[in-house]
Amino acid sequence: MKDLTQGKEGPLILKFALPMLLGNVFQQLYNIVDSIVVGNFIGKEALAAVGASFPIIFAFLSLIIGIATGSTIVISQYFGAKNIEKVKRTIDTLFIFLFFASITISIIAIIFSEDIFKLLKLPEEIIPTAKIYFNIFMGGAIVSFGFNGTSAILRGLGDSKTPMYFLIISTFTNIGLDLLFVIVFQWGIAGVAIASVIAQGGAFLTAIIYLNKNHKIIQFSFKNLIFDKQIFKKSIRIGLPTGIQQTFVSLGMMALIGIVNTFGTNVIAAYSVATRINSLASLPAMNFAAALSTFVGQNLGAKKTERVKSGFIATFKMSSIISLTVTAAVLLFGNFIMGLFTNDSEVIRIGQEYLMIVGSFYIVLTAMFSISGVMRGAGDTIIPMFTTLISLWVVRIPGAYILSKHFGEKGIWWAIPIGWMIGLLLAYIYYLTGNWKKKVVI
Question: Which tens digit of pLDDT belongs to each residue from 358-379?
Answer without folding.
Answer: 999 999 999 999 998 888 888 7
